[in-house]
């Protein structure tokens, strides 16, 4: 069964890549090495956010606070840096803010019983609002060169941000595949009742998973601000749609219990290539969001249809 799932994921990703190859053949310089490295660099923020969101979707949850946390985590880090504080401590502060928001999401969902959609939507709005308050609605920038190196520097000809992205994906993949907690996360998404009957603290798992998602979102926001050398209070908004799209294209089931982080990375790269191609074609970002949204709807609809078909077939026998 697992092999069949993986084959379906590969088919989805393969189809997307073939479509991009065909589209790229009409776009000059699309497949040059410089452009492809740039696409990977631009996709790094989405990929890092997708590490946490993949885990959330696997436990049959959703995290709509990603965009707000991306903005607020970066804003906290940026303001502290401009005040003359140590760069590392500033980054840790931004990460801590994201972790705190994520843990709050998990607490509200697990302990209070508030639906994930409502909790994370509100928390995302609060985080975005706080970012606006801290910056008085404007942008901040002019960060130290050492901070900019994290987002735009290179090592051995490869952007530093690509190494950071790879580290998140590798650690996340190993965590899900090799640890007891990772197995419990998959089990929780498959059947929460059974997991509870086995004496496993499902609330603890949910809180940890949402905490990881918030932490990843803040890290993505910090990396984004290093790439742009600026922080705008609403610059995290587009990353919610792209992160969910990356997870869906990577084969993460919106019905829980299924998904691989490394395939979510592939989904992030596909989204990055799609946006890059559309930019080269001169398409306005508003229309790009329509296309990405349509991709999500189609993939999710087909996935749900296939799962419902399997359920009906199993009942027949």
Using the alpha-carbon principal axes, give the shape.
Answer: globular
Mean pLDDT level: 85
What is the radius of gyration?
A: 19 Å
Main beta sheet: 2 strands, antiparallel
Strand-and-helix sequence, N→C?
HHHHHEHEEHHHHEHHH
Treating each run of at least 4 consecutive H or I residues as one helix, how many helices? Answer: 13
- Share of β-strand residues: under 5%
Structural class by sheet pairing and helices: mainly alpha
Strand order of the largest sheet: 1-4
Fraction of residues in helices?
Answer: over 70%
Query: How many beta strands in the DSSP annotation?
Result: 4
User: Cα distance, first to last residue?
Assistant: 18 Å
The unreliable regions are 1-6
Can you put this structure into words, describing what you see?
The protein has 317 residues and is mostly helical. The chain is 78% helix and 3% strand. It has 13 helices and 4 strands. The strands form 2 sheets. A two-stranded antiparallel sheet has the order 1-4. Strands 2-3 form a two-stranded antiparallel ribbon. The model is unreliable at 1-6 (pLDDT under 50).
Short summary of the structure?
By secondary structure, the chain is mainly alpha-helical. Helix content is 78%, strand content 3%.
Descriptors for this entry?
about 325 residues; mainly alpha; two-stranded antiparallel ribbon; 13 helices; 4 strands; globular; disordered N terminus
């Amino acid at each position: 069964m697992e092999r069949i799932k993986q084959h379906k994921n590969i088919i989805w990703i393969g189809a997307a890549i073939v479509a991009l190859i065909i589209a790229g053949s009409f776009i000059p310089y699309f497949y040059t090495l410089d452009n492809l490295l740039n696409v990977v660099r631009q996709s790094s923020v989405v990929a890092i956010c997708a590490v946490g969101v993949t885990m959330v979707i696997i436990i049959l949850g959703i995290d709509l606070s990603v965009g707000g946390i991306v903005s607020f985590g970066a804003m906290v880090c940026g303001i502290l840096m401009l005040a003359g504080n140590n760069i590392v401590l500033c980054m840790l502060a931004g990460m801590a803010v994201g972790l705190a928001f994520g843990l709050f999401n998990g607490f509200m969902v697990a302990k209070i019983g508030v639906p994930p959609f409502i909790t994370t939507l509100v928390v995302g709005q609060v985080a975005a609002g706080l970012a606006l308050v801290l910056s008085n609605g404007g942008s901040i920038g002019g960060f130290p060169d050492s901070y900019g190196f994290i987002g735009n520097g290179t090592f051995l000809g490869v952007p530093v941000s690509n190494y950071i992205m790879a580290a998140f994906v590798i650690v996340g993949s190993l965590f899900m595949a090799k640890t007891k907690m990772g197995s419990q996360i998959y089990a929780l998404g498959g059947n929460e009742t059974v997991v509870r009957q086995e004496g496993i603290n499902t609330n603890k798992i949910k809180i940890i998973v949402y905490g990881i998602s918030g932490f990843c979102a803040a890290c993505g926001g910090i990396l984004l601000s290093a790439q742009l050398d600026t922080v705008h209070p609403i610059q995290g908004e587009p990353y919610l749609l792209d992160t969910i799209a990356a997870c869906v294209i990577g084969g993460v089931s919106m019905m829980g219990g299924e998904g691989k982080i490394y395939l979510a990375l592939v989904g992030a790269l596909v989204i990055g290539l799609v946006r890059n191609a559309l930019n080269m074609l001169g398409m306005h970002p508003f229309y790009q969001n329509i296309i990405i949204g349509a991709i999500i709807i189609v993939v999710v609809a087909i996935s749900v249809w296939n799962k419902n078909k399997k359920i009906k077939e199993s009942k027949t026998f």
